[in-house]
Amino acid sequence: MEFKSLKNIESSFKQIRFFGIVFVCLCAGIVGYALWNSYSFAEAQRQKIYVLDGGKSLMLALSQDLSQNRPVEAREHVKRFHELFFTLSPDKNAIESNIKRALFLVDKSAFGYYKDLTEKGYYNRIISGNINQVIQVDSVVCNFDGYPYKVATYAKQMIIRESNVTERSLVTRCNLINSVRSDNNPHGFIMEAFEIVENRDIRVIDR
Questions:
Q1: pTM value?
Q2: Which residue from 170, 182, 177 is spatially nearest to 104, judged by alpha carbons?
Q3: Of 20, 35, 50, 172, which alpha carbon lies 20 to 30 A from 161's?
């Protein structure tokens, strides 16, 4: 009878120890989850910026890792250069203004093309012939695996005259390096070693 009583005590002690271990593990799990959740909440709050608008209203802005936007900014930078450099109207001031803004985005390699076209009288023919040149950028392919970044641009040029419209295929290449952001260069890139790989007529459409 005494042996059976001791056996029951030992069994009860094992049950108590088992439930005690389960309880401790459960408490540890709850504490761990609470700490992780608190850290996640604090991290999310650090991504939020509250801005006072004239000291009156409170606006919420979200911060973001700058590197996440670099590929998008790179493509927009290259696209913007092509739109400024290759979009021409029969107005000398408009041409010079666009070229000046485009040259802030690139090194002297593009200036070489501009100087060459000027010497050949290309811009004078645009003005005297009342010709409009419009560019449509189809795609900008950037390779971010190495630095400087390799970029290829595929676009179409439309040479619009009174009698016809000439459609050209334009392919360019360049290297892209990081630079300081400014009003004239908001994306913080500079195009290097710019070259026109292809610029050929595709078709002529009579008007």
A1: 0.69
A2: 182
A3: 172
- CA neighbours within 13 Å on the CB side: how many for 135? 22
Q: And the tokens for 69?
A: 């936007």
Which CATH number fits the domain 67-206, given the four candidates 3.30.930.10, 3.10.290.10, 3.10.450.230, 3.30.70.270?
Answer: 3.10.450.230
**Angstrom distances, CA of residue 96 to CA of 92, 100, 104, 124:** 6, 6, 13, 12
d(CA 151, CA 190): 12
The model's pLDDT over 152-191, given as tens digits with 9 standing for 90+, comes to 999 999 999 999 999 999 999 999 999 999 999 999 999 9
Q: Where are the domains of the chain?
A: 2-62, 67-206
The alpha carbon torsion through 160, 163, 164, 165 (nearest 10 deg) reads 10
